[in-house]
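Quick question about two entries, pasted in order.
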Amino acid sequence: MARDFAEAPARIGPNALTQTAAALVALQGPAAAEAVFARAGLLHRWREPPGEMVPEDEPARLFAAVAEALGEAEARMVLADSGRLTGDYILANRIPGPARGLLRLLPARIAARMLLSAILRHAWTFAGSGRCRAEGLSLVIEGNPLRSPGGVWHEAVLSRLFARLASRRATVSRISAAPERFAISLG
């Protein structure tokens, strides 16, 4: 008997959904947030937020629905806030305290390179089926399934991590769209 060995869809961390919900509520109110989730076909995620990895198409649909419902300027604000909240969650729950402490003690360039290396090892959690690599102090995501207007979600997540762990003056900017390339400046 033949079996179907089709690959399971790539998965992404639930914070792309849960923190976008929090940002929508904070910036637009609960009714607007629920309407955006409904528009994305994710009302079930609004009603019961996920606590584990989700198929990559879900946050992609939510980010698209945010942009469609709110327009680009408002969408950028919501998704940047979601990215910052996601970064805060990662700092508090996913990076062990000793690692955070060590990175903060190192010179900024060394800490940034170590952090970038760790990000690449866990890239599937925020890039799903996208292919990630480092080029100097840049993160490149080819085939990013989780695109946001101007790359603001990834910019915000990465900026939060690098500013808290490598240099307070660190910023991350998307410098190209295809592939998406995020340059890390240490200030």
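Here is the second entry:
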Amino acid sequence: MTQALPRAWFGRDPLEVAPELLGCTLVVRGVGLRITEVEAYRGESDPGSHGFRGRTPRTAVMFGPPGHLYVYFTYGMHWCANLVCASDGVCGAVLVRAGEVVDGLELALERRPGVRDRDLARGPARLTRALGITGEDDGADVCGGDDAPFAVLPPAAPVDPARVRSGPRVGVSGAGGDGVLYPWRYWLDGEPSVSPYRAARPRVRRR
């Protein structure tokens, strides 16, 4: 059996961890997802991060220790899952944006019936539904050992660096959405499960 990635592996800069997660398998209660798209967030130095303004009850998990899930609710209807990185006390995480279900396909299809295999986890909200991740999993340990319900396994085969692409993060508004300063979305070129890029919509304040 392939050994799960250890906590020390996650205890690095999210910009190092993010591209190396591509091709890894995120295992959640028996469903395995080969990761094809991620986004890095660097906390208090990153205007696109939830942790930019400091630690709050909502973002406490992002401040470590590494190797845990940070799960948040968005648009009043969707869960998104991140893998906490950086050293303990430093805010950092990688959003798992998309992937291919490679194990537990029947269970994933039960959660998203009538959906093509390609689209099961094509986007962060679809991904959490396919894996069965909810807010109750916020803070879950992905480095808990062989019998743990969560784990991240290294790629079955080395990923060709020439396939790794980077660009602006999806739906991030303001300074953090600047694709020149923050090209922190990473994906594997040619993977059908990668989600389409959408720029952030400017928020219109109601008077």
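Reply: The two ends are 58 Å apart (CA to CA). The CA atoms of residues 18 and 59 lie 19 Å apart. Hope that helps.
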